[in-house]
Write a structure and sequence with these properties.
6 strands; single chain; alpha/beta; RNA-binding; 15% strand; 6-stranded mixed sheet; 2 domains; Ribosomal Protein L4, Chain: A; 209 residues
Amino acid sequence: MKVAVLDINGKDTGRKADLSQDVFAIEPNNHAVYLDVKQYLANQRQGTHKAKERAEISGSTRKIKKQKGTGTARAGSIKSGVFKGGGRMFGPRPRNYSFKLNKNVKRLARKSALSIKAGEQSIVVLEDFNFDTVKTKNFTAILKALNLENKKSLFVLGASNNNVYLSSRNLQGSEVVTSSELNTYKILNANQVVLLEGALEGIETNLSK
């Protein structure tokens, strides 16, 4: 699968990048994609929610009315959840939402997501670049050259580059990750996936195992 390599000005360099059929052109597995996205979102949850139950409420322990003869239901504690100011019945408790997912399923999901984007022609291959200093203006110029100013974009680097990462951090619609940080949710959440040449080998190595 041949894709033109662009420079940071959005111009064709005349070179072609060869995208692996085993990574960018498979039959997408929707269930694997669903599971991987579900796991990613579950892992973002802190799970610190908590409501006070009747044992944790401050209040009198006196029986509030006699057992029989009132014509209403019996009641023994003002801290019961049926009364105003009482404890919460079956309220949320702190818990861990994360769950285990097989590595092969995660790998299949990421290949499926990349294949979906490739099928939508939403993948761009860009030549490797670097910034001498941290400047958001430099990164904005690249977005403008690629017509990505008002779109969600995901830039995938071959290796960590602090200047490029920090230059993009203030831009809400753009995200920069390395090939080892790539995940299904981020791929699908972006309107355009921009792969730097140096990231292709790492992506294919990680997903072809």
